[in-house]
Amino acid sequence: MKLFSCPSCQQVVFFSNVVCERCNHALGYEPASNRILALEPAEDGFWVSVGQGSDGKGWKYDANYAHGVCNWVLPSDSPDTLSLASRFNMTIPNLDNPDNLPLWQKMELAKQRLFYTLLRLDLPLVTRAEHKEGLGFQFLSDEGGQNVMTGHDEGIITIALAEADDAEREKRRSAMGEPYRTLLGHFRHEIGHWYWDLLVRDGGALEECRAIFGDDTLDYGQALQTHYANGPKPNWQEEYVSSYAASHAWEDFAETWAHYLHIVDTLEVGGSYGIAVHPKADREGILSTNLDFKVFGKETTIEEIMEAWLALSAALNSFNRAMGHQDLYPFVLSPAVVAKLGFIHDLVHGRIGRGREAVEEAVREQAKLAA
C-alpha cells in the first residue's frame, strides 16, 4: 500500500485516516482514482473536495462512516449508500452488543486493505446479485452458543468475529502451532478460494493449475481430517509455503494466493517509503534491492518481485528481532513455492486462463436470465 498526502496541505496521511492532523480537513479514500481526498462540508449536506488536484466535485461518505468503520467515499449523486468496501457485506456483527463495534472496526480495516490490493491488481469483483457465486462477507460471533468457523462456501466468506480479538487470535495461533495468523491473512486466504472458483475453475485454467498445485479432485474433507490427525506432511517446506498448504490442492492455492498479496502489498509500502536495502556485509548483493519498480505492473516479473522480497523480508525480520518480536515474515520460500507464486502472478495478470472474460460472460448471462 502506498503512502498518501493531504491534498490541502501536503501532510503525509495514511489509508485509514479520517482527518488531517495538520490542516484539520476531513479525509476520505476514493478508490476509482486511488486518492485520499481533503473534504469540506457543502451547502447541500454533502462534501466537496478541496486542495491540490481537486475538481470541486461533491462526495459523500459510505453509510458505515457513521459507525467509524469506513472512510471510503462515493460521488454525492450516486444512488448507492455503500462504497465498494461495504457493498459486499451480508452480515455484520450485532451492534446492540457494544463489545462488537471495536472488533467490527478491525474487521473492516482488514477488508479495506484487502480490497485496496484487489483493485490495484484490477481483479474482477462481482456481487451475489450479479453472479450466482458472487462475493459476500459474513462477520459472525459465537453469541447464542454457535461455533463460528472461518471459511469460504460458493462465494460467501465467513470470518469469525473472535479473530478480531488479538488475544483470542494469538491463543488460536499458539494452539495450532502456526508461525503466523492475522485478520488480514484470513481475508487474503479465504478470497483466494473464491478466485480459484472464478479464475481457475471457471476461467479455463484447471489443467495448468493442477500441473503445479496438484489434484484438486481428491476428497477435501478426508484430506483435512488426515492433516489434523497426522500432522504436516514430512518435508513440506520443500514444496509448500506452509504446513497447512500441504493438506490439499485448494489450500495450497489459497495459501499461496494470500502470500502473493502479502508480498506485493508490502513491497509497495517499501517503494512508497523509498526504501533501498544495501547491507554493508552483503558483498555479493544477495540481500540488496531498490524498491523503485511497479510491483503491480503487468510488465514486472516474478523474478523481480522475489529478488526484492528476499532482501526486504530479511531486513524486516532483522528489525523485528531487534525489538524482541517474532519474525515479521517467518517463512522460507523454496524454488517450488516461488514457481507457485509465479503461477499466481501470471493468473492475476491474465497470462493464464480467461478468468475476467469468463466472469463477465457469467454476469451477462445472469442478467439475461433475470430480465
Order of helices and strands: EEEEEEEEHEEEHHHHHEEHHH
Overall number of domains: 3
Strand order of the largest sheet: 3-4-5-6-7
Whole-number mean pLDDT: 94
Query: Structural class of the secondary structure composition?
Result: alpha+beta
Q: Which spans of ≥5 residues are poorly predicted at pLDDT below 50?
A: none
Distance between the termini: 40 Å
User: How many distinct beta strands?
Assistant: 13
What shape does the CA trace take?
A: globular
- Tell me the fraction of residues in β-strands, as a range: 5-15%
Task: Explain what the structure shows.
The chain has 371 residues and is an alpha+beta fold. It folds into 3 domains: 4-75, no CATH class; 88-197, no CATH class; 206-352, no CATH class. It has 9 helices and 13 strands. The chain has helices at residues 100-120, 166-175, 183-201, 206-213, 220-230, 249-272, 302-322, 335-348, 355-370, and strands at 4-5, 12-13, 26-30, 35-41, 47-50, 58-61, 73-75, 89-91, 136-140, 151-153, 156-160, 276-277, 289-290. It has a 5-stranded antiparallel beta sheet, with no helix packed on it. A 4-stranded mixed beta sheet has the order 8-9-11-10, with helices on one face. α3 (183-201) crosses α6 (249-272). The radius of gyration is 21 Å and the shape is globular. The model has no long low-confidence stretch (mean pLDDT 94).
